[in-house]
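dumping this here so i dont lose it
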């Protein structure tokens, strides 16, 4: 029995040393000439029902999906530059219950493209790589609201504009080439654009600009972070 326990202890110790040596031989990080492909996919679905003593009064269903792919090239082991895209859509359907149910549908679509520069400045162990990122981009969106029984749209608006932002993120390497990405929301951001009402006969437009600071992101990491996947070539 003692010999069996001794053999098991030696085997476990030996396996631990082999794993440690293999991890030590692996390279978790980036080099000049590396290319990364990254993507964040998000979706949501919700349902809300209002009622009173007579029964259900209204029902609201909300759904959205977004996809944000990126590709970057490393100028050196710490700095990468690249391109980013963003596409998304959302639907809000409201049903008012009555003698004749009235359904209002709000549909939105969005597209964006831009460039970014990412700098890796801190290693939190071998597998955790922390970075700061600056991005500039263009975006556009279209929103339409319709209702059952109506011959025309209730609302038809378009938005287009430019934006810039500075954010932080972390890569956790599962293998040498494959990592999980934790991208925090922008710490600082600026946006400027124009909203146009397509139903207006006077060509009405609204100009919008905003500057935002989100410094409390460090206290709410899991409420603001986007999770994605990163692959290194």
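and the seq i came up w/
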């Amino acid at each position: 029995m003692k010999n069996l326990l001794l053999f098991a202890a030696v085997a476990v110790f030996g396996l631990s040393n082999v794993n440690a040596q293999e991890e030590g031989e692996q390279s978790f990080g980036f080099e000049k000439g590396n290319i990364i492909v990254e993507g964040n996919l998000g979706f949501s679905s919700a349902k809300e029902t209002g009622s009173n003593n007579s029964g259900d009064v209204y029902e609201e269903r909300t759904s959205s999906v977004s996809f944000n792919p990126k590709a970057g090239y490393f100028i050196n082991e710490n700095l990468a530059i690249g391109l980013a895209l963003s596409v998304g859509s959302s639907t809000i359907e409201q049903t008012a219950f009555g003698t004749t149910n009235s359904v209002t549908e709000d549909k939105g679509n969005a597209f964006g493209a831009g460039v970014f520069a990412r700098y890796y400045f801190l290693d939190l162990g071998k597998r955790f790589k922390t970075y700061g990122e600056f991005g500039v981009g263009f975006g556009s969106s279209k929103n339409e609201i319709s209702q059952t029984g109506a011959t025309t749209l209730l609302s038809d608006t378009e938005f287009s504009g430019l934006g810039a932002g500075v954010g932080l993120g972390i890569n956790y390497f599962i293998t040498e080439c494959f990592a999980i990405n934790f991208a925090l929301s922008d710490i600082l951001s600026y946006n400027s654009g124009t909203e146009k009402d397509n139903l207006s006969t006077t060509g009405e437009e609204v100009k919008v600009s905003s500057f935002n600071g989100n410094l409390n992101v460090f206290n709410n990491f899991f409420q603001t972070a986007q999770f994605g996947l990163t692959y290194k070539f």
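Strands lie at 35-52, 55-74, 79-96, 102-123, 128-147, 155-173, 178-183, 188-197, 205-213, 226-232.
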